[in-house]
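Justification of computing resources. Each target in the renewal requires a structure prediction run like the one illustrated here; the chain below, 153 residues long, is used simply to show the kind of job we budget for.
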Amino acid sequence: MIQHLLQILVETVPEREKEEVREVFEEYGLSPESQHIIVEELAKDKKKWVDFMMRFELGLEEPNANRATTSALTIGVSYIIGGTIPLLPYFFTDTPSAGLKLSAVITLICLFAFGFFKSKATGQPLLSGALKVMFIGAAAAAAAFSVAKLFGA
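Resulting structure tokens:
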């Protein structure tokens, strides 16, 4: 979609788009003469021009077509696992209230662990990142529980 929009802009307002590409080269310290030469050469091939603008002006890359299936499977499996964890305790307890308590504890532990590893992967402080994910999850669960109680009562 963005690529299509850039193609339209290249066709309708080429001078403005050339100026934006010049600004990219200016950031790299190229002289105005060099900027002009490179931009004019790049503008000769509109597909390469749009590709350049996608990558260097907007910081976007064309997505890999094979990645969509992998992403969909990853998200689907994650939802199944993430949804099963809070439900499992209900199968092993005698009463719904006992299942709810055990589910809350297990879910909070899992959220803490997820937050810990997420923080480790993203370079954030481990403890505060883990607690943040855990508290956000707890707040979301409390809100959902409250709404269910409100409309279920």
